[in-house]
Amino acid sequence: MNNLPGYFVKGEGTPVVLLHCSMSSKEQWLTLASLLKEKFKVIGIDLYGYGQSPFPEKTDNFTLDNEIELIEKVFEKVLDENEKFHLAGHSYGGAVAMKYSTLERKRNISLCVFEPMLNHVFREIDHDTFLLGKQFISDIENDVLSGNPKKGCIKFIDLFSGDGTFEKLPYEIQKIFMNCIKKMPMDYRATIDENLNSNLYKKIDIPVCLISGKKSPDITAQISRFISGIIPGLTHFEIDGGHMSPIEKPEFFNPIVKDFFAKI
Q1: Which among 62, 127, 130 is positioned nearest to 96, based on CA atoms?
Q2: Residue 72 main-chain phi, psi, to 5 deg
Q3: Is the pLDDT of residue 151 over 70?
Q4: In the prediction, which pLDDT does 2 show?
Q5: How many CA atoms lie within 13 A of 102 on its CB side?
């Protein structure tokens, strides 16, 4: 079995590591990479089960630490020993980036996240939403296990991009989503079962940029509001879009990321 993660490297300069959202891949970053590569060494990584990365061998008790182990395999290939880098992540990739930024041996010099799916924080701020989230993912898992991945995709994609979005997609794109949805519940469980809490996020001591969408669903908006109020010195931008803005509205998202890293 090929255990090597998929990744790309574009440009030269201070490294920027990009982590994609669930049901996506490193390809979502190509437009941003073309913008950054003139001044930065841009590294896009496929998280477990997406793009060219393998499905995790360990499916029980899968954690964000497993994703960090995966991306560190890429660091060994493309970064010098102990080389520092900027780190950005969207949604699930943002949750991985946030977890990495709490580690004692972190190497990132800054952090930029778009609506990180830190579902575990609902234990602290809204226990009803915490329970609803777990039920939502169980429903999607049941769809997949019963042989109806399309039904699960509709629930997930339409939640974050609006009712009817999945059915409007080209069939080839629908097939890609249906092929990778079996990993998405593992992503959600990894974030909802994580033992991180607000006290650990308060200790993040690097420049942090949080970006959120004015049209995002309440579940992601609540997390963004919570995070924006606890990390010292965090800069928060709101853009005219929803949870998938890094993909659907790159003209609003990408310049903020570029300017943030350029100022560090």
Answers
A1: 62
A2: -70, -25
A3: yes
A4: 57
A5: 17
